[in-house]
Design a protein that fits this description.
heterodimer, A: 114 residues, mainly beta, six-stranded mixed beta sheet, four-stranded antiparallel beta sheet, 12 strands, 51% strand, B: 116 residues, seven-stranded mixed beta sheet, 11 strands, globular
């Protein structure tokens, strides 16, 4: 069965520092991968997605992610974190159920220190 | 993209009652999804709702507990029936939009439900 693992439940970084959030997936075929962000009291916003092609994808708000098939990973990165980036981040993968059902990881909560 | 609104944004309900959550989209979409996010947890798909057909429920979710309506291509409702404190969660609807082989899912702001 498909699954997504986000090993880090909670991460704290200083404002201006670099960020990497880890995501590993288990999927039998070519995965379609997504990163979403959920700010307090808000719905989910899509940061970026990977379907095929270039393994380094750029997203909104200065985020990028790299797909590494050999490591079954899709880690999210940002070179310089802003205080407004404090939020919960979810990695997700589509299943093979005949429709685009999203399977989410447990999420990583990011705190940013001034 | 798609803009999605949900009503109510939050509610506090008594045990044994039912609550119907509305989801409205600003464009016509084929597939709509309902998710549950329990406190401190990730999102779990409850069901997929296509217009003109019965909703498809995921394992662990049943129609009697979470009846869904999909009367047209821009609207859906999810009812949480006979509620218990364990139903306290955020309920989110999402839609597929964008075209292409794999469409993106856009999410509503969620309905925060507390059951006493």
């Amino acid at each position: 069965a498909q699954s997504v693992t986000q090993p880090d439940i909670h991460i704290t970084v200083s404002e201006g520092a670099s960020l990497e959030l880890r995501c590993n997936y288990s999927y039998g075929a070519t995965p379609y991968l997504f990163w979403y962000v959920q700010s307090p009291g808000q719905g989910l916003q899509l940061l970026l997605k990977y379907f095929s092609g270039d393994t380094l994808v750029q997203g909104i708000k200065g985020f990028e992610a790299e797909f590494k098939r050999s490591q079954s990973s899709f880690n999210l990165r940002k070179p310089s974190v802003h205080w407004s980036d404090a939020a919960e981040y979810f990695c997700a993968v589509t299943s093979s159920g005949g429709y685009n059902k999203l399977i989410f990881g447990a999420g990583t909560r990011l705190a940013v220190h001034p | 993209s798609a803009v999605i609104s949900q009503k109510p944004s939050r509610d506090i309900c008594q045990r044994g009652t039912s609550l119907t959550i509305q989801c409205q989209v600003d464009s016509q979409v084929t597939m709509m999804f309902w998710y549950r996010q329990q406190p401190g947890q990730s999102l779990t798909l409850i069901a997929t709702a296509n217009q003109g057909s019965e909703a498809t429920y995921e394992s662990g979710f049943v129609i009697d507990k979470f009846p869904i309506s999909r009367p047209n291509l821009t609207f859906s409702t999810l009812t949480v029936s006979n509620m218990s404190p364990e139903d306290s969660s955020i309920y989110l609807c999402s839609v597929e939009a964008g075209g292409g082989q794999i469409n993106e899912q856009f999410f509503g702001p969620g309905t925060r439900l507390t059951v006493l």
